[in-house]
Amino acid sequence: MLKKLAIPVIFLAVGFGVGFAAGVYVLPIYIEYKSKPQQVVDVVQAEATDPIGQFDRNSPGSDALHWGEGTVRFSSGKLVFEEDVKLAPGPDYRIYLSRKFADTKSDFTKIKSQAVEISKLKTFSGPLEFELPEGLNAHEFDNVIVWCETFSMYIASARLE
Q1: Which one is predicted more confidently, 41 or 108?
Q2: Residue 65 CB neighbours (<10 A)
Q3: What distances in angstroms separate CA 26 from CA 31, 33, 79, 131, one per listed residue?
Q4: Between vectors from CA 45 to CA 37 and to CA 41, what angle results, nearest 5°?
Q5: Residues 6+ apart with CB under 8 A from 75
Q6: Which of 11-15, 64-68, 75-79, 134-138 is predicted with the least confidence, judged by mean pLDDT?
Q7: Nearest to 157 by CA among 76, 99, 113
Q8: pLDDT tens digits, residue range 63-101?
């Protein structure tokens, strides 16, 4: 009798665990999509002198669920994600500027206290434009990092040159 009950109970427990984990991951994304979008129709036009960088989907810290690709730049006191930017969806993404490059979770964890948070990210593709904090000298920072605050996960980074 116990053997007959064990298999359904195991499947029920595994199904509940998978469903719960999926809900924890998907619900924050769903809530983010329902909030006011960050999408910007007309972004600041690029200038030849703008520092520009690339999010690389194949960076060492990326995986199938945590990645980013596309072009990012500073322009006219703003951080701009170009139209080609795509990020893996996830909850509680934050954009940081850093003086040191980090392309893994452990690298960013070491420098996070010196990084400057620019904005919470509510949209997972460009074009997007973010105001830099007043008084921030953008020329001091040459790295953009996208980080999932809730799960302390590295998403993407770009070195601006």
Answers
A1: 108
A2: 13
A3: 9, 11, 28, 28
A4: 25
A5: 44, 45, 46, 47, 50
A6: 11-15
A7: 99
A8: 998 999 999 999 888 899 999 999 998 888 999 999 999
84, two tokens: 């080609």
CA 117 to chain centre: 12
The DSSP symbol for 139 reads G
Helical ranges in 89-128 per DSSP H? 105-111
Euclidean distance between CA atoms 74 and 161, whole angstroms: 10
**Encoded tokens for 139:** 């020329």
Return the SS3 of 17. Answer: helix
The H or E element that residue 24 is part of is helix 2-34
Q: Token pair of 71, please? A: 């072009």
How big is the CA angle at 13 (ends 12 and 17), to the nearest 5 degrees? 115
Residue 43 and residue 60: Cα distance in Å, rounded? Answer: 30
DSSP-based helix, strand, coil % in the chain, nearest 5: 30, 30, 40
Please tell me the pTM assigned to this model: 0.77
By residue count, the chain amounts to: 161
Tokens of 27: 């619900």
